[in-house]
Amino acid sequence: MQIKSIEWADDSLVVIDQTQLPEKLIYLKIDTLDQLLEAIQKLKIRGAPLLGAAGAFGIYLGIRNSRADIYEINNLVRRSYDKVVSARPTAVNLKWGAEQAKEAAQNQVEIASIKKAALDKAIEITLDDFRRCESIGKNGSDLITEGGILTHCNTGALATCGIGTAFGVLWTAHRQGKKISVFAGETRPLLQGARLTAWECQQLGMPCTLITDNMAGMVMRKKLIHIVIVGADRIAKNGDVANKIGTYSLAVLAKQHQIPFYVAAPLSTFDFHCPDGESIPIEERDPDEVRGGFGKLTAPKDVNVFNPAFDVTPHEYITAFITEKGISKPPFQF
Amino acid sequence: MQIKSIEWADDSLVVIDQTQLPEKLIYLKIDTLDQLLEAIQKLKIRGAPLLGAAGAFGIYLGIRNSRADIYEINNLVRRSYDKVVSARPTAVNLKWGAEQAKEAAQNQVEIASIKKAALDKAIEITLDDFRRCESIGKNGSDLITEGGILTHCNTGALATCGIGTAFGVLWTAHRQGKKISVFAGETRPLLQGARLTAWECQQLGMPCTLITDNMAGMVMRKKLIHIVIVGADRIAKNGDVANKIGTYSLAVLAKQHQIPFYVAAPLSTFDFHCPDGESIPIEERDPDEVRGGFGKLTAPKDVNVFNPAFDVTPHEYITAFITEKGISKPPFQF
User: Fold this and answer.
1) Which helix (H) or strand (E) holds A74?
2) In this complex, which of B185, B210, B214 lies closest to A245 when CB atoms are compared?
3) What confidence tier does A90 reach under pLDDT thresholds 50, 70, 90?
4) Residue A312 — φ and ψ, nearest 5°?
């Protein structure tokens, strides 16, 4: 089964409610901006590229049923944009997608074409991301023959508008008949590997073994892992990678066990204004994600917690980058 | 505050109900063998050395109120032993402690002295373990000056009859006025680091930061960690160490960052019949510990899981062993 986490169908936006996973697969039909904002705020929709598309659809949903005049509708575009952006202020892609649709709308002079331009842009962003994932998947699959592949966090259909980035490589290799077996690190504290990646593997019929993050060393030593492949949140000019916390530990362990360590990401993830990993700001998140989050408190309620959302993996640990344009091996020249 | 997880007081066994931690500190008064068996089965009492003492007390509790004759009381000793052992069949220390008390009782020929010998042996085992922890703590503290110290799982008062093994070293250094800061790895899947070690640090007023296991690499790279110290479940003749899953990953990360990696354990942990780590059998536990286990399901309910309880750290990653007899550095000669 293909997983479509976002789709424009029958004049509605249809998304998977990710907060119900892995227990239930529920599609939400979204017809208004308020419904979309609620879905974004409650993390029913998450994942950077997916939020980019959602942000663009937000502009259209904000104006589609309006009977305002041309002056008012332009105000409404701006107000919709502000609402989308403030739904999750730190989500860069959300803002980017909303901006794309806002600008497309603002280039029009008739009410009907303003609405159409916003919708067309949102659909275009969705399709672009879909195609980008396909290319990353095909390029990355060339690096894969068979064996155990460890991945981290969720980089699949639930995070993108297509098959995913790092996960898309696995899915492409599997579709091509390569005998791979996915090891999904659960990815504490928010367990995206356990909740989402393991679920996607099941939906797609890919062999998958769920492990806790601290088992990575052991499974490598037991020679169960032949490749590690992860996504990226931001890649600096020198090739240093910021990604979900735990990525750096995996990179060190992979190097120690002489296992290739690949990073799959669209070109838009490269930030050429950022010289190296030291310059990437690392967001710290709510300590309660570590203290609890499994349904009950699992640590003293006031214990001091360090909860960085990301870590930085220096470029010397990276065997190659996989992008929609191809494979990049060291020395990295960006 | 000193933590006493087991004590014979006012003719009762008093233990901490560890299933209530970290939310509530509740002492259980145990007066019968059935109460003890329930506490062991429900993991209200856990930790290898602590179970050794509990097992010995079980023999006494099984016979203390009996009015049987000398023949019957010897049968009762044996039946109590069988009950204790079958409460947790894989807990080696539980069996060992029960055996000690059983043999002490069986060496007596009068009813009163049979009862007294079982109780005396249980108290002796408790005190021996208390003193052993003190010695390990003192010996280990000589290796510590100041700084951040990462530990794994729970090796403190809640696992032993004293201050603990690896944790006892931290506590001793702290009591000696050394400026240390504990980093407690949460230790998935059962979160002993989060639930127990972080709680012990709070009770004792030791600075503590809780992290998820996958943050270990990042905190080392940020130079927040100056020493790693862990306990051991079994040490082979060549110095390979079986310990809680995740230990091996920490050892590799420590070596990569040139951080000393110490193993603190009583001499009874060394198994000279076991030539190396490859010969140590690794128990696999219930997959549901990884899929959920803290009040809600956090992975697909039927996803394949690998859940080894322990991993093996080869001796070449170990800077030194800390035992009650002193420090042992490579080349290890056991």
Assistant:
1) helix A70-87
2) B214
3) confident
4) -115, 130
Asked if B136 and B169 touch (Cβ cutoff 8 Å), the reply is yes
Say yes or no for a CB contact (<8 Å) between B298 and A214: no
Rounded-to-integer distance, Cα A161 and Cα A14, Å: 12
What pLDDT, in 10s, does the model give residues B245-269? Answer: 999 999 999 999 999 999 999 998 9
Do the Cβ atoms of A283 and A247 come closer than 8 Å? no
Instruction: Report the C-alpha gap between B156 and B172 in whole angstroms.
Output: 11
Per-residue burial over A139-152, b if 16 or more Cβ lie within 10 Å, else e, is: bbbebbeeebbbbb
Cα three-residue angle A119-A120-A125, rounded to 5 degrees: 100
C-alpha B206: how far from its chain's center? 20
Please judge whether B303 and A208 are an interchain contact, meaning their C-beta atoms are less than 8 angstroms apart: yes
> Do the strands B227-230 and A234-236 form a parallel or antiparallel pair, or are they unpaired?
unpaired
Quick one: angle between helices B92-106 and B111-141, nearest 10?
140
Assembly ipTM: 0.93
Q: What distance in Å separates residue A210's CA from the closest CA in chain B?
A: 5
Q: Which pLDDT score is estimated for A1?
A: 65
Are A218 and B253 in contact (CB < 8 Å)? no
Binding-face residues of A in 88-117 toward B, CB within 8 A:
none
The reported pLDDT for the residue numbered A92 is: 84
